[in-house]
Amino acid sequence: MNARRKYRRIVCFLLALGITGLGYCALEALRNQIPDTVRVSQEGELPVLFPNIPAGWIQARAVGDERSEAAVSGKPQDIDDGHDTDTGRMQETAVESLTGMSSSKTMVAYSLFGHIPLKTVTVDVVPREAVYVGGTPIGIYLETNGVFVVETGEVTAQDGEVCCPAENIVKSGDYIQAVNGEKVHTKEELIQCIDASDGSDVVLDVDRSGEQISLRLHPVRDENGTYKAGVWVRNDTQGIGTLTYIDENGNFGALGHGISDIDTGEILDVSGGTLYQAEVLSIVKGTQGIPGELSGIIHYNEGYKIGEISANRKNGIFGAMIGFPAAVQDMTKYEVAHKQEVTAGPATILCSVDGERREYDVEIRELRLNGKDVNKGMVLEVTDEELLELTGGIVQGMSGSPILQNGRLVGAVTHVFVQDAKKGYGIFVESMLGQ
């Protein structure tokens, strides 16, 4: 009998332990979905982060202001604060809790059922922005901040010996900015400086992950009599993408993701670049396992320049348009949605895949308000039959296509699912505007 009782106690203990563990994991998952920072417009209210969770489960209050306590569930809830508790009063209290602060930032504490703390969020009260929405193809030319090292390689010397002069000295991802104190901007200049060493050691000034260092290596004379350092390099890159927006000051954002080196996968550190007019000439449809692409022509002539690129970041490429405000005369201005205002459900993307800029239907399947990868804040699925017939879904070159929902700009297309071309990722537009 005692053995049975002991066995039941062990089972109950293990069951309680399992339930506790599951509850803890569920809480952590909920916490991870809550962003650290949220923006609201000045006429805003306590941000609704979980519109599909039953009313009253998730509650929020401005820290230090008891009047602001309110359930965040997609619908206003009553507040027992000693005043009238109808819907209008609740909304008024919530607005006061944010707009009445002396600072544009306030802290909002989220809790489960008002008792279990989840996370304290910084709420940034900002004016509602409006931008001109793009959707047109663009040609992109980027110049790296120095000569970018792809990898080191072998050199066959005049005596037939194979060696690697840069091995364990220069690293993939380095930016060579000078040779023996002489600035280099192109791979041709680097080759000339190395060959001019006449076999003497050279000192390379290198940017490595933001740190300025000097490296010494000994060039090797190859079979053709040319001195080489044994590094594979490049100093520029180009491609086709889609313009996302132009703000009221003529600044643009495009792609929704940074441009990476094709070999190393690293975001390129650029010294500048140019936007050009581009035309889509043909479409390679995406199929399972093979992403499609927009093939086109970039007009690299001076007269076809439309913008100057100043930054290549994880959340897109940025710069200033040439000829603003004439550049936006055919564009429509849209208000910008905050990420917590985006909802799962119908939306459209604006792009030009057949020479005409137009909207195509998509469905937002999933939202990741606190996703660690800023380029994958939402999961999209193309539902427009015409676009599916044209492209098979999302293809390379559509990156940056604006995502519209409820009359606002909510984001931009960034990636395609290689195994399912109908689906892809998008970035919240406020993640681009925030830079």
Question: Roughly how much helix do the residues carry, as a percent range?
Answer: 10-25%
CATH topology of the largest domain: Thrombin, subunit H
Shape: globular
Number of domains: 3
Strand percentage: 35-45%
Radius of gyration: 28 Å
Major sheet: size, sense and barrel closure? Answer: 19 strands, mixed
Using DSSP, what is the number of strands? 28
* Helix count, DSSP H or I runs of 4 or more residues: 5
Key words describing this protein structure:
5 helices, 15% helix, Pdz3 Domain, alpha+beta, 3 domains, Thrombin, subunit H, 19-stranded mixed sheet, 435 residues, 5-stranded mixed sheet
Detailed description of the structure:
The chain is of the alpha+beta class. It has 3 domains: 33-127, no CATH class; 131-139 and 236-434, Thrombin, subunit H; 154-229, Pdz3 Domain (Roll), CATH 2.30.42. The protein has helices at residues 2-33, 87-99, 187-195, 385-391, 429-434; strands at 37-41, 58-62, 70-71, 105-112, 116-126, 130-133, 137-152, 155-156, 162-163, 175-179, 182-183, 202-208, 211-217, 220-221, 227-228, 231-246, 251-254, 270-284, 293-298, 305-313, 316-321, 333-336, 345-352, 357-367, 378-382, 402-405, 408-417, 420-428. The longest helix is centred in the first third of the chain and has 32 residues, at 2-33. It is globular and about 85 Å long.
